[in-house]
Amino acid sequence: MMDTIKNVEYGLEKIFEGAQDFLPLLGTDYIEFYVGNAKQSAHYYKTAFGFQSFAYKGLETGSKETTSYVLIQDKIRLVLTTPLNSNSPINQHLVKHGDGVKVVALWVEDARKSWEETTSRGAKSFMEPTVEQDEHGEVVRAGIHTYGDVVHIFVERKNYKGLFLPGFEKWESDYNPSNVGFKFVDHMVGNVGWGEMNQWVQWYEDVMGFVNFLSFDDKQIHTEYSALMSKVMSNGNGRIKFPINEPAEGNKKSQIEEYLDFYEGPGVQHIAVATDDIITTVKELRARGVEFLSAPPRAYYEEIPKRLGSHMEMMKEDIADLEKLAILVDADEEGYLLQIFTKPVVDRPTLFFEIIQRMGAKGFGAGNFKALFESIEREQERRGTL
Ligand code: FE2
Questions:
Q1: Is residue 189 part of a domain?
Q2: What family does the entry list (predicted)?
Q3: How many Å lie between the centroid of ligand 1 and the Cα of residue 241?
């Protein structure tokens, strides 16, 4: 697996060299899901994933069309939105996709300029620059369409002192399960259709000024049965990373194709969240009922010392603990990483989460792709969609 990493274009220097600075991004602002029942989804993300009640809008706050719950865990903000009547355009999104990610919001210094720079480079506008105000100041937001029905909204909040956005009130709850140690969004992955990956790579380069800093082809990402291709896009400061996957031909159905069938088009496949202590985080998640993909065979764990090489010295985790929790390990020149993938968090086999702890490594677990995909295929087999 270390060879896999060596063979691809790699290095943060390249990110800074190649990236354009016409769209400076400060970080992920929020991720908004359209869901069928925001009240119940909010309970799930609090109970199972340790998110905290943060802000709310709904009938009680004067929002007649939609209800939204905002949940927070360290730097991660999730917004769960549901329509309150059949006229809402959100219903079409739900009928087509089921629950899923609609908005990947990006925190910017200047939302108008971000919208102008991107739309002048070919982005399709989703929302013209809009100023929202309340007694705490003003927020400017503007949005563009990306793959599928997903949109990016640029959020400028430098003149705002309120909790989240105008229109939202503090969400006070008597039910406050503890967090599980999520820190920030490490990366978010999009699945696009057959032959569309390069077109979206080009789009992120041309429209957003991103660079492609890692690529995996179907020779690297395949099992006996199925394959996919992936390219990782990053903005200039490396804070925003969007890998983009497309299916590839194999003997059986690619997991990406299964996603596209069930989501009925391109969309966000997984959200990877960073933790400083994956063993504690995963123990806690398992105790709360979060389901993970099954562990690779014992041989995988026996080979870890060989795979990690010199990084083994800095490894603090006990391999037996990793095996018990089904946590995967990978390494590149700069260090190692620990990761694990949940089963889909919805009934359609679409959106899932990744938990990742980086110990110097900057890759995405290429050395785990085979073990991971064999585990996914065991699930596909059970669903009858392999
Ligand atoms: Fe990932």
A1: yes
A2: Belongs to the 4HPPD family.
A3: 10
- DSSP assignments along 253-319, one per residue: --HHHHHHHHHTS-EEEEEEEEES-HHHHHHHHHHTT--BPPPPPHHHHHTHHHHHGGGGGG--S-H
Whether 53 and 199 share a structural domain: no
- Do both 231 and 98 map to the same domain? no
**Distance from residue 272's CA to the centre of ligand 1 (Å):** 6
What are residue 203's phi and psi, to 5 degrees? -60, -45
The pLDDT tens digits of the residues spanning 195-214 come to: 999 999 999 999 999 999 88
Q: Which residues line ion ligand 1, judged by CB < 5 Å?
A: 272, 354
| 361 Cα: distance to centroid of ligand 1 (angstroms) | 13
Q: Please determine, for residue 227, whether its predicted confidence score (pLDDT) is greater than 90.
A: no
Distance 382 CA to ligand 1 centre (A): 23
Q: What angle do CA 386, 223, 226 make, to 5 degrees?
A: 35
- Could you tell me the distance, in angstroms and rounded to a whole number, from the CA of residue 200 to the centre of ligand 1? 18
pLDDT digits (tens, 9 = 90+) for 96-125: 999 999 999 999 999 999 999 999 999 999
Ligand 1 mean position, distance from CA 221 (Å): 13
Distance CA 333, CA 348 (A): 37
Residue 339 lies in a domain: yes
* Ligand 1 mean position, distance from CA 316 (Å): 23
Place of tokens 């102008």: 116
Spacing, Cα 149 to ligand 1 middle (Å): 21
**CATH number for 269:** 3.10.180.10
Within-domain flag for 116: yes
Tell me the DSSP string of 136-200: TEEEEEEEEE-STT-EEEEEE-TTB-SSSSTT-EE---S--PPP--EEEEEEEEEE--TT-HHHH
> Does a structural domain hold residue 309?
yes
**Predicted pLDDT at 367:** 81
State in Å: Cα 357 to ligand 1 middle: 12
Tell me how far the alpha carbon of residue 189 lies from the centroid of ligand 1, in angstroms. Answer: 7
DSSP-assigned letter for residue 238: S
Q: How far is the CA of 42 from the centre of ligand 1 (A)?
A: 23
